[in-house]
């Protein structure tokens, strides 16, 4: 598949998507979101893909929604076409998705990264929700996901002032899983993605669904959901293989 705004690679069982509008720091326009969604659909349907990585360039993961495309939008157009809803395909992917962020992840770029299951950051990463400087507020989850990840005080300061947060602060605040040297970002992301892709795909998806459930429900209901899914895992051949392999002192083979 050939695309205009993204580059797509396969590394064994890992699908790598590079956002690729270098002249505009990967500003997210409707073409890019459309192409991203096509590839997400394809990877989701492909049994040979066990994990997905989304990254940008050294300078920018994405500097936000494309302001030149968005600036003349009217309210009826925005409402009637349900502007931004198409971006949410990423948050509905069932397979694990990692954001590998170097440089700017601003506005919709930060929101896109937060739709992934975790964010691996280069030491050059800068996160922010600067929409307020453009006379709008975040519209793809920034006021909601950022608040859950870093807490009200920091999210409120970032959304109200537009202040950017560097990689070290993002790690301290819990926005990113860890920080790696910029030169190693993609290889580190591919390595952890390969580790995940070698697990049981069923169990990886169920684990993702269970962790995500903690954001949607009470603790008691979340624990109940986890328990039922855990119990059902004893119906999986992969549970038998994983535990048998441990006892036989050999690596498990979840590819059968
Ligand atoms: C369109 C953009 C862009 C964007 C950068 N560019 N961000 N074009 N939309 N979001 C373009 C610039 O116009 C410029 O084009 C080129 O990319 C390089 O950017 P520079 O500004 O020259 O680079 P630099 O000086 O390094 O500054 C980098 C920057 C700055 C700090 C990231 O570009 C910036 O502030 N960008 C806007 C960030 C932002 O406000 N994001 C939120 C968007 S609103 P030319 O042609 O001049 O070379 C949003 C809403 C989300 O995301 C709501 C739901 C999705």
From TrEMBL:
It holds the Pfam family ECH_1. It is an enzyme of class 4 (lyase). CDD domains: crotonase-like. Keywords: Lyase. Its EC number is 4.2.1.17. InterPro entries: ClpP/crotonase-like_dom_sf, Enoyl-CoA_hyd/isom_CS, Enoyl-CoA_hydra/iso, Enoyl-CoA_hydra_C. Gene3D superfamilies: 2-enoyl-CoA Hydratase, Chain A, domain 1, Lyase 2-enoyl-coa Hydratase, Chain A, domain 2. PROSITE patterns: ENOYL_COA_HYDRATASE. The keyword Lyase applies. One of its GO terms (molecular function) is enoyl-CoA hydratase activity. Belongs to the enoyl-CoA hydratase/isomerase family. This is Enoyl-CoA hydratase. It comes from Xanthobacter agilis.
């Amino acid at each position: 598949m050939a695309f205009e705004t993204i580059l797509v690679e396969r590394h064994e069982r890992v699908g790598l998507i590079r956002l690729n509008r270098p002249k505009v720091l990967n500003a997210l326009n409707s073409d890019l979101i459309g192409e991203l969604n096509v590839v997400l659909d394809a990877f989701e349907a492909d049994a040979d893909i066990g994990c997905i990585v989304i990254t940008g360039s050294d300078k920018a993961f994405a500097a936000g929604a494309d302001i030149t495309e968005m600036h003349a939008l009217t309210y009826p157009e925005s409402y009637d076409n349900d502007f931004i809803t198409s971006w949410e395909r990423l948050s509905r992917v069932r397979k694990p998705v990692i954001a590998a962020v170097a440089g700017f992840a601003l506005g919709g770029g930060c929101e896109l990264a937060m739709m992934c299951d975790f964010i691996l950051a280069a030491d050059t990463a800068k996160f922010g929700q600067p929409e307020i400087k453009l006379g709008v507020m975040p519209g793809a989850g920034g006021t909601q996901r950022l608040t859950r990840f870093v807490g009200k005080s920091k999210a409120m300061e970032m959304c109200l002032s537009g202040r950017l947060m560097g990689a070290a602060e993002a790690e301290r605040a819990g926005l990113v899983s860890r920080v790696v040297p910029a030169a190693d970002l993609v290889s580190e992301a591919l390595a952890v993605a390969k580790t995940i892709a070698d697990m049981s795909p069923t169990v990886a998806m169920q684990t993702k669904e269970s962790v995500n459930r903690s954001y949607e429900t009470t603790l008691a209901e979340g624990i109940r959901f986890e328990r039922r899914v855990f119990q059902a895992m004893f119906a999986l051949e992969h549970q038998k293989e994983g535990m048998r392999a441990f006892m036989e002192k050999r690596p498990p083979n979840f590819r059968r």
